[in-house]
């Protein structure tokens, strides 16, 4: 069952269920065709796919999930013509989920336990939309402690195998959202401020689908704890300033949606909406 899709808009506040757009990266659009090629000719050993610019690291995860589901050993190589400006690989996060080595993204965290993966898989499989997923995450969060948040967030870059009838990109985004929502709810339970949030820190990392999930989960928290609306909008604004004009970056649409969603709550916030950022951002990795 797909997530509900509705258009974004600047003029009015958005319901939480509209905050999570489908992935539309160039490679993702081609994965269905690649899957058909694999099924029709198992002898093909390699595909080289050329894209105009580098893509979110999670695109690589979606590719591998698709190959695993197809039981394929195919080598899928993406070749990017350029790196846009501003460089989407830059990070000011304290603990980014991704780092780049020789221009290639690598997870910075170890694979979490099977139990955590199973719980998030169940949430991803059962939820109807973002609102339903949030409600389920609130209940599941009671089974976790603050010490387990890094393991939950690690699931965003070490996703479990696809379940149900989902394509790889949709499944990955569901799992990432489930992990971010549970982690955010754990922080809510322990009254962790957004300024100290491990989930918020993700939004300062390299541009990636994981940022979409983190920002949506934070917006859902701010929807009920309106004192954080300003800080979450600040994170969204910071994100928009970092998104290149060239390429497909779903976090742009998410950031706009979050700011619109929280528009009615921001005037009532306490404090300002600035986000403390590192004065020494991580240098861009070599291409």
How would you describe the overall organization of this protein?
With 287 residues, the chain is mostly helical. The protein has one domain (23-268). It is built from ten helices and four strands. It has helices at 26-40, 57-69, 114-126, 130-140, 149-154, 168-189, 198-202, 209-224, 229-242, 250-261; strands at residues 46-51, 75-80, 98-101, 104-107. The chain has a two-stranded parallel ribbon. α3 (114-126) crosses α6 (168-189) and α8 packs antiparallel against α9 (229-242). The chain is globular and about 55 Å long.
What class would the helix/strand composition place it in?
mainly alpha
Radius of gyration: 18 Å
Main β-sheet: number of strands, strand sense, barrel status?
2 strands, parallel
Number of DSSP strand runs: 4
Q: Tell me roughly what share of residues is in helical segments.
A: 40-55%
Q: Tally the helices: what do you get? A: 10
Outline the low-pLDDT stretches: 1-14, 268-281
Gross morphology is globular
Q: Kindly, what is the distance between the CA atoms of the first and last residues, rounded to a whole number of angstroms?
A: 39 Å
Summary?
Residues 1-14 and 268-281 have low confidence and may be disordered. The strands form two sheets. A two-stranded parallel sheet has the order 1-2. Strands 3-4 form a two-stranded antiparallel sheet. It is mainly alpha-helical and 287 residues long.
Write the layout of secondary structure elements.
Layout lengths: L25 H15 L5 E6 L5 H13 L5 E6 L17 E4 L2 E4 L6 H13 L3 H11 L8 H6 L13 H22 L8 H5 L6 H16 L4 H14 L7 H12 L26
Parallel strand pairs: 1-2
Antiparallel strand pairs: 3-4
Helix pairs in contact: 1-2, 2-6, 3-4, 3-6, 4-6, 6-8, 8-9, 8-10, 9-10
